[in-house]
Amino acid sequence: MLPSNLHSADELNNFAQKIKDWALELGFADAKIVKPSLEQYKAQYQQWIDSGYHGTMEYLADHGDLRFKPEELHEGTQRVISLRMHYLPESVETVKRLQTPEKAYIARYALGRDYHKVIRKRLTTLAKRIEDVIGDHGYRAFVDSAPVLERQIAEQAGMGWIGKNTLLLSPKAGSWFLLGELFTNLPLPVDAPTQTRHCGSCDACIQKCPTDAFVEPWVLDASKCISYLTIEYKGSIPVDLRSKMGNRIFGCDDCQLVCPWTKFSKHTQENDFQPRHKLDQADLIELFLWTEDEFLDKTAGSPIRRTGYESWRRNIAIALGNAPYNEVAIKALESQKPASSELLQEHIEWALDMQQRKQHR
Which domain holds residue 56? Predict the structure, then answer.
């Protein structure tokens, strides 16, 4: 039940604006309200799954129709509050770091504290503020951690549009931001949906993808995406893709970097998203020689922990193979080979072979 002071349209509109103001106070860049209609995406999504474009991410094929029925994911859902938060620090280099092959490139969202924790805490605080005013309203917070079609929800809320690179683009902020959702049982007034996808004839993201992971506009073969390969995939990286990975050891930002809308991006002011352990400028050799204890210590509370120590070193071995000839790199690779797993040895041998080829050019 809504309190008596929230029954008229004007009262609900005023309260919805108050929620958005609170969101900005909590560090979000924008907040929109939507009553999502997601059944329309079911056939296309299932076709994507049937094509195997999700790779080994079986969780994307699980949960039945929950991702298309918000009211079943959270009982009583009437609206979704869609929010975004900037994550790129002003001091962090992007293109320049990609062009320095002996340095590691880590997707810029992963340099600081785990965004799941940062955003979920803010969402919960926002929900509690709402609760302080009207009492129990029935809510559930999500941050890329459940079967939620967050980009489709954000597009329907008017937050921006889904670009050809499958990321949400904002005319105010490009795509250097993260999304979160607050499912609520409140019948709040909704915002106007995004009517037009403003990509036009531009296909820079498709043409510049290092591994040609885009099947067509708006269709990503995740099994070829560097983000998938370096984070989610735990097996042997296909040989034909290794040289295309460059120095990208965790994630990939290329389809954002080449997008014209990136020029409108805003920098984050969040301390939690500032780089830890100088990961924005670390040498590949230094990271490759981390012990497992060092890895666990320096990735505590970081999204990088998700990849695991073995995959971390597998990824760096590939990057060292792609780097210019370096005797120190060769010694580092050779020193780690004897005690490594069969999987890691395979990638170290590939890297050594690549280094030796460069020596004789």
Answer: 4-89+112-184
